[in-house]
Design a protein that fits this description.
Blueprint (H helix, E strand, L loop, with lengths): L8 H14 L5 E2 L2 E2 L1 H19 L4 H8 L7 H8 E6 L12 E8 L2 E8 L5 H6 L7 H16 L4 E7 L6 H5 L2 H14 L4 E10 H8 L3 E5 L3 E3 L3 H9 L5 H8 L3 H6 L5 E3 L10 H17 L6 H14 L5
Parallel strand pairs: 5-6, 6-7, 7-8, 7-9, 8-10
Antiparallel strand pairs: 1-2, 3-4, 4-5
Length: 318
């Protein structure tokens, strides 16, 4: 069953009517064919989708990025990778299910994949802590990135988290330090690291695994210094102003590409990634493969030097 967002009310009404008509046995009602009526309603629904998604506000894009039926990290891994072998634990404290990773073959080449998994139902969301990693998750990411560097395989990072877990236990175990070390590890890698923001890229929790040579974003994903709700609480002491915060922070893929923060945008199917997950995943895979191939003839020193130049150049005034 499709879940509709609050700004999709008109679309929901039309598509619900289409579903009701299709449910009529044999497509006939009182001897009158309803196929023409269905075709008209489908065209109307498509027009409503196009007009709505052509002018999404930053807050509406935030809602699309958080859509519960949007494909998540494990959907990408299961579809894009062959012979995937998950690797667990940070070798210090515990396994963190919010951040997953392992080795696999991606379009014929070995890669190390790390990513944040939110979960798709109540049970899995609790298991994965809604994609909010604890320090051991970032320390696991460091371990896997160092392993990738040792065996000279590229790193693919799939970003989808509201942010790092802010609990007392996580802070006591060095959350900030773990995030900083993960960013440092990204910067020092001698193999290419390519990141894709597939949903929500929240704060340091996202930057920790997205300080990459190439950063791509899905069309309706977001990448933020803080969640709109948190920013509204900080700026105006009123979390209900999240809509204003989303607009002012410039968190959309289009804004971030203009500022040079990200490198490429992957178009989404009309109505968002959740309407055609297979196509979204395939298109993202092609974008990742293209980004990785840019580094095929570069040495480790050249890759690391280029990464350094990339991040020093962000925010420069020409």
């Amino acid at each position: 069953m499709r879940t509709y967002l609050d700004f999709e009310k008109t679309i929901a009404e039309i598509e619900t009517k289409v579903a009701e008509l299709r449910a009529l046995t044999g497509g006939e009602s009182d001897g009158v064919s309803i196929s023409d009526e269905i075709a008209k309603l489908e065209a109307k629904a498509n027009d409503a989708l196009q007009s709505t998604y052509a002018k999404l506000s930053p807050w509406q894009k935030t809602q699309v990025a958080r859509h519960p039926q949007r494909p998540h990290c494990m959907d990408y891994i299961d579809t894009l990778l062959e012979e995937f072998t998950p690797l667990a634990g940070d070798r210090y404290f515990a396994e963190d299910h919010a951040l997953t990773g392992g080795l696999g073959r991606f379009q014929g080449r070995p890669v190390m994949v790390i990513g944040q998994e939110k979960g798709s139902d109540t049970e899995s969301r609790l298991k994965h802590n809604f994609g909010m990693a604890r320090p051991e998750g970032y320390r696991k990411a460091i371990r896997l990135m160092e392993l990738a560097s040792r065996f000279n395989v590229p790193v693919v990072s799939l970003v989808d988290s509201a942010g790092a877990y802010p609990g007392i236990g996580a802070e006591e175990r060095g959350q900030a330090e773990a995030i900083a070390r993960s960013i440092e590890c990204c910067l020092n890698l001698r193999v290419p690291i390519v990141a894709a923001v597939i949903g929500e890229g929240g704060s340091g929790g996202a930057v920790a695994i997205a300080t990459a040579d190439r950063v791509i974003m899905l069309e309706h994903s977001i990448y933020t210094v803080a969640s709109p709700e948190a920013a509204a609480s900080i700026l105006w002491h009123d979390s209900s102003r999240a809509k204003d915060a989303a607009t002012n922070m410039k968190i959309t893929a289009q804004d971030l590409q203009e500022f040079g923060i990200i490198d490429d945008i992957v178009p989404e199917p009309l109505g968002g990634a959740h309407r055609d997950p297979k196509r979204t995943i395939a298109d993202t895979g092609d974008a990742l493969a293209s980004a990785i191939s840019e580094f095929d003839r570069m040495t480790g020193d050249e890759i690391r030097a280029g990464r350094r130049r990339k991040y020093l150049a962000i925010g420069e005034n020409s």
